[in-house]
Amino acid sequence: GLFLQDSVPASFVSSISTKRSLPRVTWGSSVKLRRRDLREERFLSVTLSSINGDASGELSESTHLKERNSDVEREIVKESKPSVAKQRQGSALNTAKHLWAGAVAAMVSRTFVAPLERLKLEYIVRGEKRSLFDLIKSIKASQGLRGFWRGNLVNILRTAPFKSINFYAYDTYRNQLLKWSGNEETTNLERFLAGAAAGITATLLCIPMDTIRTVMVAPGGEALGGLMGAFQHMMVNEGFFSLYKGLVPSIISMAPSGAVFYGVYDILKYGYLRSGEGRKRAEKTKAESNALEQLELGAVRTLLYGAIAGASAEAATYPFEVVRRRLQMQVKATKLGALPTLLKIMEEGGVGALYAGLIPSLLQVLPSASISYFVYEVMKIVLKVE
């Protein structure tokens, strides 16, 4: 039997029995679809039977082979169509699972660190001057424990799609850059570029929810009546594009933030996987059935690398975060651009004002980034994301 590639002409099959002395050749075929490269193959099976050949027999045999070849080609086309449709369906399902893994990671991590997120916003948005412990006591006394989770639902509605798109976009861009470069492994530059592109993509799609949440937490936001009230207030008084206030500094901050966050994590991750210990662990995890045991880095190392990546990204881009929040707080009558806002912040509090709330922000980012990456990696295993 022979496996025939698509490039093999039909004349090859006919040429098998061109001599009268050869016995009659009959053949069948089947189609195999490989999951990796999705190439079709024809299998030629040859059965020999002893007969006396003559000129007419040779002609009829050649005609018979050509007819059979045409039938097989029609069979291949017929069977390949549902296979392509099935492939597209599988790709769409894999994308949905990939996005869902990122969304679950965001929901779990944001809910866990919501109190720290609230403290960070108090320093950035309200310009809080009290110490961290005094602020905690004040929120607890005035709003109770639920006050620390104020706005968490809106935060989840904002961060779930943001993180979902961010994670998925990074993996997509990184794989595409790897394909274009033709390298065996993604370079550090490609990781940083993919991270920057992912941050920009997620920001463009998700900044309206972030703006609404900032307005809700800002002074006077309580009187707007929640999510829909804040949305209606902005649409009526400032127009649709008010939802994109701070877009430029957001993109300027998210591009390097995404580059550092994903780049640092991937560098740490693949540096470990290339080590002797990493290779041994990779071989061991293949036989495990538990999702936690299948983690390439292990639970502790995944949490640690996620925390390092998050802290690096936050420290590198925090001034942009401060400017962005201030821009989102502005009303139309006193609206300033990004550069004038930056200069105003520095005039009021010096360079240190650009890092106001950095400590509570890092306290929030460290567990958030580590839990986010941990849950994301676990969900990809549970959902069997390719």
Automatic annotation (TrEMBL):
Keyword Transport appears in the UniProt entry: yes
Region annotation (Disordered) ranges: 55-88
Residue spans of biased composition, Basic and acidic residues class: 61-81
Keyword terms of this UniProt record: Membrane, Mitochondrion, Mitochondrion inner membrane, Repeat, Transmembrane, Transmembrane helix, Transport
GO cellular component terms attached to this protein's record: mitochondrial inner membrane
Keyword Transmembrane in record: yes
GO biological process, one term: transmembrane transport
InterPro entries in UniProt: MCP, MCP_dom_sf, MCP_transmembrane
Family: Belongs to the mitochondrial carrier (TC 2.A.29) family.
Entry protein name: Mitochondrial adenine nucleotide transporter BTL3
Organism: Genlisea aurea
